[in-house]
Amino acid sequence: MDRSVVTLDRHIVEQERRHPGATGAFSSILQDLALAGKLINRQVRKAGLVDILGQTGRQNVHGEEVQKLDEFAHDVVFRAMDHGGHLCVMASEEQEDPLPIPEEFPTGDYALLFDPLDGSSNIDVNISIGTIFSIHERVSQGRDGTRDDLVQPGHRQEAAGYILYGSSTILVYTTGNGVHGFTLDPSIGEFLLSHRDIRIPDPGDRVYSVNEGHADKWSEDQRGLVEHLKTGRERDGGGFSARYVGSLVADFHRTLMNGGLFMYPGNRANPEGKLRLLYEAAPMAMICEEAGGRASDGERDILSLNPQNLHQRTPLYIGSSDHVELAEERLAAG
Questions:
Q1: Does residue 61 surpass a pLDDT of 60?
Q2: What is d(CA 284, CA 100) in angstroms, rounded to the nearest whole number?
Q3: Residues 235, 238: Cα–Cα separation, whole Å
Q4: Strand ranges across the sheet with 294-296
Q5: Over 60: is that where the pLDDT of 59 sits?
Q6: For residue 66, which of 116, 100, 114 has the smallest C-alpha distance?
Q7: Which domains, from first to last, does the chain contain?
Q8: Does 121 score more than 80 pLDDT?
Q9: pLDDT tens per residue across span 132-189
Q10: pTM of this prediction?
Q11: Tell me, what's the pLDDT at 2?
Q12: How far apart are CA 275 and CA 222, in angstroms?
């Protein structure tokens, strides 16, 4: 048994050594993201003790009420990432337009998209929340990055990951060479390797995760799929149990570790669903596929979709490969 203590920094350096042409820029980006996660975690842990709970009184680009901790997390990620000289542009789910790198700092070869605090509607009730990130190599020329550097299909991602603020704080990331998880040890302030080369169990748990409160707005096909999962015979793909938290990071993390199927379908009110392709679906899809699972919009692989705008939405079916394939088959069958 390997009993060595592997910090996130050590793991990043060891991964970098496998690529002789590496410049160190990528490693610095991941280290800065980890620092942002530690700062957000510190504030989440004392949220009930300081004036950081509740709403700011304004709405974001999606018409959603902005939580105080949302705003704090956005500022922390931006300020942790703006000065390193490795990014040319950023984009946040909380802001309508791309975020340029301040003029006083150099720029680099990568673009960062992030959801600063996924599941923020659960902040006030102490349910797990998280930060999601996606990294692309720039395609533009010049000092400043452009929208084209951000609006790229998921299969072009250089890295993706999330930080889960739950009973423990866990950072999970992939650069296309496996999925690895690190748990924050608060006594030393370091992320330590706790989940090496994560693979979605096959076969995974027969668990589905979806907000059935929207069932009256679903299509007949979607209602039929969920009914089949609940009542169908196990040998035919049924016999599932339901688990739903309401924070994508929390629901996906459980699915990644145990297997299962997470769904956020479209409905009559939101035909394309509510999840953002670039900030949520694509990074989770990269992680899931690297771990041996699948991610689909119900018809096509999420990573194959060509986004048309920065805040594009998509339905999402993600988890164990056989469960996602079952969902596609049932939706196609009508």
A1: no
A2: 25
A3: 7
A4: 241-242, 207-209, 261-264, 316-319, 294-296
A5: no
A6: 116
A7: 8-195 (3.30.540.10), 207-333 (3.40.190.80)
A8: no
A9: 999 999 999 999 999 999 999 999 999 999 999 988 999 999 999 999 999 999 999 9
A10: 0.92
A11: 54
A12: 17
Alpha-carbon span 298 to 306, nearest angstrom: 15
Please give the single-letter amino acid code of residue 145: G
The answer to whether the beta carbons of residues 273 and 264 sit under 8 Å apart is: yes
Nearest 5 degrees, angle CA 63-CA 65-CA 46?
A: 150
Q: How far is CA 131 from CA 53, 73, 145, 283, 329, in A?
A: 17, 8, 23, 11, 32
d(CA 34, CA 101): 19
Is the per-residue pLDDT at 93 higher than 70? Answer: yes
Place of tokens 């423990």: 168
Of 120, 114, 131, 136, give the one whose Cα is nearest residue 172.
131
Q: How many residues does the chain have?
A: 334
Print burial letters for 142-175: b (CB count within 10 Å at least 16), e (below 16).
eeebbeebbbbbbeebbbbbbbbbbeebbbbbbb
